[in-house]
Amino acid sequence: MTVALRAARAALVREVRESGTAERALWMAVVAIAAVRVWQGYKNAGDLRIVWYAGRHLLDGAPVFIDEGFLYLPTSAVLAAPFALLREGHGMGVGVLLCCCAVVVLATASVRLLAAPGPRWLAPAVSLAVLTSYAGGDLIAVANSEFVPLAMLPFILAAAARGRWTTFAVLLGLSIVVKPFLIGLLLLPLLAFRPRALAIAVGIPVVGSALSLLLVADPGNFFDVTIPSLLRGQEKTENPANASLAHLLDYAGLPEKLVLGLRVVMVVIGVGAAVVRWRRTGGDPVVRVVEVGVLLLLTSSLASSVVWSHYALLLVPVFVIAGRPGAVTGRTAVLWPLLLPVLALGYPANVPTIWGTVMVRVGLSLLAILLVLAWRYAVLPPRDVRSPQAAEPARPAEAEQLRR
């Protein structure tokens, strides 16, 4: 009887896998959760309104950069102009819907392009997990324009992993044109000694910004208002959702000079570990690029003055590749519990939870993940994924026979 039950269960599991029932059920769940997220985001969409108003001001010939909340490149104002042709409410609805689609694209493309071959239901399963997480919900709730670089992230990493550095540079440059969220990836072509790719990635936003300044009414305010606001750190001490290291240390009451010193130390640790990991060329090139790229992004983000909880979405590619041979996330069990504070619910940001406020739990979680990744990259050599015969050097006698 037991044997018959096991056989029936195995047959049922096989039938579900082959028929795609699990995949379809998960995609239906993704659509349902996405609908809830879009409804939540439509009621907020605060960040997207800043971009909408910038586009509206550009169309009306009014100053664009006088608003200290608009911390974007001039290209963002130009790109927002068509968006501003819509009524404000309609524009927010479209933007929130695009944010939700971007979360699904980030998860699905990471699985399809970067993860090890697996079952078909893995992509919708990861999409569902990311959508239900606090980080995914936060991006949609505030409708931040960082959804564009996030959706492009797996494609950028995949291009670099396959040695397509021109494609990598063009995609990265275009993402920076929207918002310089992935600017930490500019170090990848430096590590790979690809100066042409670096020049393309930097040149696209520089040229685009120069041309865009010709179209705005107040080009000087970009240098007088926007850049100082970026350097000063908008809302660094006021917003309880800011999870940057600077805000965490200010929250702890540390003096400003010590805060600056600790931020520099974190950058040295993150970039140093990324360099060490890049120089270890053995193993899977996809794992190498994803691990180094995500660590650079995590370091540049936490070192900045402002970090929001949806920055945790940068971790999706590095955790998705856990099934690939040699991936650190597949060989370091402690990394997975560190995700729990990011996944734990707790909105709005100033409401304490069992993990503390959103700022505290997200900031500490991201910092802990950065330090663990840096430690493992520095001490854990990549696993050789070649065949055992290719990985082992030939013995002298065998080599002599091969020469004969």
Automatic annotation (TrEMBL):
Protein name: Arabinofuranan 3-O-arabinosyltransferase
GO molecular-function terms, A-Z: hexosyltransferase activity
Record-stated family: Belongs to the glycosyltransferase 87 family.
Keywords assigned by UniProt, alphabetized: Cell membrane, Membrane, Transferase, Transmembrane, Transmembrane helix
GO cellular component entries: plasma membrane
Topology of this chain in the membrane: Multi-pass membrane protein
Keyword Membrane attached: yes
Regions that span the bilayer: 93-115, 121-140, 171-191, 198-217, 258-278, 290-313, 333-351, 358-378
Domain of life: Bacteria
Location in or out of the cell: Cell membrane
Organism: Trujillonella endophytica
Broad class of the protein's primary localization: membrane
InterPro entries: GT87
